[in-house]
């Protein structure tokens, strides 16, 4: 049986030989997060303030999130390509995750029933090429893998959950961990696990972000009310490590840094890739503890922090200061997990 993501992070960090956590850097990030928290810039409402995201009143909000997080992986451009995959929508150009959101919204506006598993459980590659058409010569990465994911999850929703992710949420009875288990048990493409030092570890990036997005979209109420939401850890992807390295909270061995600088692909499940992701989980847990200490020391009982909000802060920071962070290489792993 796999360790939980939280246990996995601690286990991986303890045995890591290529990636290291620096407590001074942890403190630096914690200070930034605490300042953002005090200013009111970091809260559960942030999700719905993104114009591409659904509002909690949208009838298909949960199923929109399910489709998007089924496809929420691997947006980086291939090392030999000069262009990124882009989506043009309503006069704006989007890249990365937001290009996915924009393409989904564009398709829905064009009459494609993209939140209906009856449609996407049988969607053709030709349809997907049209739905995710690029504004550049660079097509959407891993399109055939995305088709497989949609077919897989769509069939399960139709067979077990009456065609809606809402029924998965209801089955969880307000427990984030139960919903996480429902997702990873029933939908194999969300089962983001690896072997590390003879131990099965779980990273569960997309499964956790799916639960976290439901929580954030519904502002922790109604479908998004989870009594144990704080038990989720950060979403171990390829962008957040960039920010943690920038702040000095994560450090890489010279050997690993050389690989990243030369754009060498790290296979999914390889030791170095697992160490980067596991140490990210552990470092965010340490950041959270530091922020909680600051909240307690200042008696700011109205402030609340969890690892999801810290992840939001780090991901947004990377977006906001993309040019500054461009000099820090990120690991590239072609896979459906992140």
What labels would you give this structure?
two-stranded antiparallel ribbon; single chain; mainly alpha; globular
Describe this structure in words.
There is one protein chain. About 50% of the residues lie in helices and about 5% in strands. It is mainly alpha-helical. The chain has one domain (about 5-325). Helix 2 (about 25-40) crosses helix 13 (about 270-295), helix 3 (about 60-70) runs antiparallel to helix 10 (about 205-215) and helix 11 packs across helix 14. The chain is globular and about 50 Å long. The protein starts with a helix and ends in a 13-residue tail after the last helix. One of its GO terms (biological process) is tRNA modification.
List the helices and strands and how they pair.
Blueprint lengths: L4 H11 L3 E3 L1 H16 L22 H10 L15 E4 L2 E4 H14 L7 H4 L4 H7 L11 H18 L5 H6 L4 H11 L6 E4 L2 E4 L2 H13 L22 H7 L3 E3 L1 H8 L9 H27 L9 H14 L1 H4 L13
Antiparallel strand pairs: 1-6, 2-3, 4-5
Helix pairs in contact: 1-13, 2-13, 3-10, 9-10, 11-14
Enzyme class: hydrolase
Family: Belongs to the QNG1 protein family.
Protein name: Queuosine 5'-phosphate N-glycosylase/hydrolase
